[in-house]
């Protein structure tokens, strides 16, 4: 017997997918893994230990790719929540402009989404978005993704 999925009919929520409360911690943990992998790679290369450099390079690359994928998924969720057709996730991939895009356009979209959700438009500072953009976005989106 086929019926509607648990929780309602065919129409789903229009906002971003619900995120667990641990999402910012996961993003921060993966970011630290990327930094630690790069440090390990440099130490291994300078000490002449090739296997250590390879392991560190692989760890840094995989964690960096994981952070990039999480950042892209969060930007897609942000676009879906605000419904702004001008906001595109791939703009972060453009060299130099991607930094500007994260510091200006993404922060403005987060402010817009927070006001749409009925929350205060206070978000993390531009300095945090510069150094840890995925973590800052995860923390700022964590509040309104539960609404």
List the helices and strands and how they pair.
Blueprint (H helix, E strand, L loop, with lengths): L22 H25 L2 H33 L14 H20 L9 H6 L1 H12 L3
Helix pairs in contact: 1-2, 1-5, 2-3, 2-5, 3-5
3D structure, described in words:
This protein is an all-alpha fold and 147 residues long. It has one domain (23-142). It contains five helices and no strands. The chain is elongated, with a radius of gyration of 18 Å. The two termini are 32 Å apart.
Order of helices and strands: HHHHH
- Determine the N-to-C terminus distance: 32 Å
Helix/strand class: mainly alpha
**How many alpha or pi helices?**
5
The count of strands amounts to 0
Please name the defining characteristics of this protein.
5 helices, mainly alpha
Short summary:
The chain is mainly alpha-helical.
């Amino acid at each position: 017997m086929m019926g509607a999925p648990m929780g309602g009919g065919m129409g789903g929520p229009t906002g971003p997918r619900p995120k667990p409360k641990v999402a910012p911690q996961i993003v921060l943990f993966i970011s630290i893994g990327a930094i630690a992998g790069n440090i390990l790679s440099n130490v291994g290369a300078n000490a002449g230990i090739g296997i250590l450099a390879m392991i560190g390079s692989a760890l840094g690359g995989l964690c960096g790719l994981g952070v990039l994928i999480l950042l892209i998924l969060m930007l897609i969720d942000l676009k879906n929540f605000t419904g702004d057709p001008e906001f595109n996730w791939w703009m972060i991939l453009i060299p130099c402009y991607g930094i500007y895009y994260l510091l200006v356009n993404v922060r403005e979209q987060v402010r817009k989404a927070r006001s749409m959700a009925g929350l205060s438009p206070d978000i993390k500072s531009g300095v945090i978005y510069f150094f840890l953009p995925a973590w800052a976005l995860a923390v700022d989106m964590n509040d309104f993704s539960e609404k």
